[in-house]
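Chapter summary example.
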Amino acid sequence: MVSTLRQAQDGAGSSTRVLVLAGGLSHERDVSIRSGRRVAEALRDAGFEVDERDVDAGLLPWLADHTPDCVVPLLHGETGEDGALREILELVGLPYVGAGPAASRVAFDKPVAKVVAQGAGLHTPPSVTLPHETFRELGAAMVMHLLVAALGLPLIVKPAKGGSALGCSVVRSADDLPSAMVDAFAYGDTALVEQCIEGVEVAVPVIDTGEGPRALPVVEVKPDGGVYDYTARYTAGSTEFVVPAKIDDDLAAECARVAETIHAALGLRDLSRSDLMIDAEGRVWFLEVNVAPGLTETSTVPLSVQAAGLDLGTLVGDLVRAAVARRTP
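The structure predicted for these 329 residues follows.
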């Protein structure tokens, strides 16, 4: 199949054909479909030939018969961000937009990404990583008591892997910790319990179209309910986005530096989005990074792209061309 795919790529005409992959079987399927639809439309407006497909048993046979010049994977959650799909795309010899398998796998694992961030000199909240088995076998009540004693309140509890704030809870009272742990374990077998840093929440996309990674304008996130959860992220009108964020130039530059640093430290490429918090003292904290950020009508990346004076279709098109250019002959 590899030779067939490469022969088809070598014979591709001047019109670039792009496959947008969206959907999948993760809890973030609906968000992925919305992202895929928007990007596909933007690429068509930019002059690309675009196919849209889900990830299923028919994908590989379809690729053998309709080889695209490049793939844009927009699957959110484990099926799209744990590196496995990207490894398959490399097996069939197709260039794709986004981080490679190993970098995706590390970035998707929040506790591991935090270790990389610390090694790069970034601030990241104190935390404890708890597999469900350990939590249960050592006695949930005692473990939760130790968590509060060590990390204090408030806490934020989230699945160690996943996105869109699914299974994520802010805990302001010790009485609320048990239900928060249950919610996190509902979306994965390991929970990350962090000290909750309060302040100004921001998102910073980083792009690299071939001239090195650069941060786009900082987006300030102001959810109506105070917590940027799944509903606040994807329900129109539930969150106010301020872009560029209402922070001074030095803080904006520091946010950009943090996002660019983690992008480089993790070995990411093309596009990422870092979620950060600015505390009352002006310290910038790294929370997590996303290698397949949402690109829906309520997502932060398109807002930042627009604030930078860029067109989404043109930008993704530039990323497609960069991906094709780096393909190994």
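To summarize the output: The longest helix spans residues 29-45.
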